[in-house]
Amino acid sequence: MKAMRVAAFGAPPLPAQLAEPQLRAGRTIVRMEAATVGHIDRTVWGGKFLRHPPFPYTPGVEAAGVVVASTLHAVGQRVWLRGSGLGTLFDGTWCELIDAPDEALGLLPDAVPSTLGSAFFSPCTSAWVALHDIARMRAGERVLVTGATGAVGSLAVQLALDGGAHVIAVVGQAAQAAAMPPAAQVLVLGDDPSEALASVSADLLVDTVGGPLLAAALPRVEPGGRAVLVGYTAGNGLALDLAHFLQRDVALLPLNMFRRDAAGRAAAPELLARLADGRLRLDVQPFALEDAAAALDWIAQRGHRGRAVLVARP
Ligand SMILES: NC(=O)c1ccc[n+]([C@@H]2O[C@H](COP(=O)([O-])OP(=O)(O)OC[C@H]3O[C@@H](n4cnc5c(N)ncnc54)[C@H](OP(=O)(O)O)[C@@H]3O)[C@@H](O)[C@H]2O)c1
């Protein structure tokens, strides 16, 4: 079977022929239909994650496909896969036949295509857990979302609106405003984020960008409010004036979806139902399995929309 293999940190993933996996206790073999290329895969690939599979390895933390051998699931069952060591401890999902721990799998409804089934978990559950499990968002609150054009940010905007919040969606350029739901208030950053943000105040910040944008957005949270930190694409430092921080009493709350995996899995069926009937939307950009390197580049570019997924040739 074909797999994309990485020989060293940062080396391009290259196709290789591997022996087909054999069924073992506690594992399910899945024929891959779509496998996500996400920021976590870039982090592992770049040697910046806390662990990585031994080299050479098959990347890929998420996927969707069909069960071909299992003691737990019926052959032919459509499933999504995520985590449980896939692509971080041992070989992952960028291959034709995935050898997955049983606990990595979830059932994929017929109405959700494999590309979406592969890509949904990280952005949808991250946004859900950030809003509901971590921030305990309440209807009527003002929720400021940075990186609102991104996968997690766009889901946070949609889910906060669904939860009855007043949403302020932060985008970089005026042209991106059209992509936001009409019910959201859109704030365009332009050249001076601090000036652009000066007129808003919020009860809750969901920050998916980090760096200087987090520094500019944090003071916009009212005293007693909360700020959930999701990502640090724009920089991983934040300088705090401690006196100011204590006086303002805004709770800085990190999101770590590996630690919050159970909460994400608990929310997955509801999120899949909303994706199936169109209440939630997530764009996916398919690439051929062999084009994994191009997908890794694509997700690192500003202005890309949605999630990259590798699709197996029929
Ligand atoms: N903590 C966790 O457990 C967890 C879970 C999921 C994701 N994450 C992290 O969350 C982050 C967002 O994930 P994602 O999937 O939403 O990524 P994404 O789809 O690539 O979106 C990135 C967003 O950030 C914006 N952005 C990027 N660089 C920026 C900058 N310098 N200034 C202002 N805006 C900038 C992009 O705007 P443009 O559209 O204008 O380029 C876009 O809206 C990533 O760092 C990811 O690793 C963390």
UniProtKB/TrEMBL annotation:
Residue stretches making up the Enoyl reductase (ER) domain: 2-310
Protein origin, superkingdom: Bacteria
InterPro entries: ADH-like_C, ADH-like_N, ER, GroES-like_sf, NAD(P)-bd_dom_sf, Zn-ADH-like_protein
SUPFAM superfamilies xref list: GroES-like (SSF50129), NAD(P)-binding Rossmann-fold domains (SSF51735)
Gene3D superfamilies, A to Z: Medium-chain alcohol dehydrogenases, catalytic domain, NAD(P)-binding Rossmann-like Domain
Matches recorded under PANTHER family: QUINONE OXIDOREDUCTASE-LIKE PROTEIN 2 (PTHR43677:SF4), SHORT-CHAIN DEHYDROGENASE/REDUCTASE (PTHR43677)
Protein name as annotated: Zinc-binding alcohol dehydrogenase family protein
Taxonomic source organism: Variovorax ginsengisoli
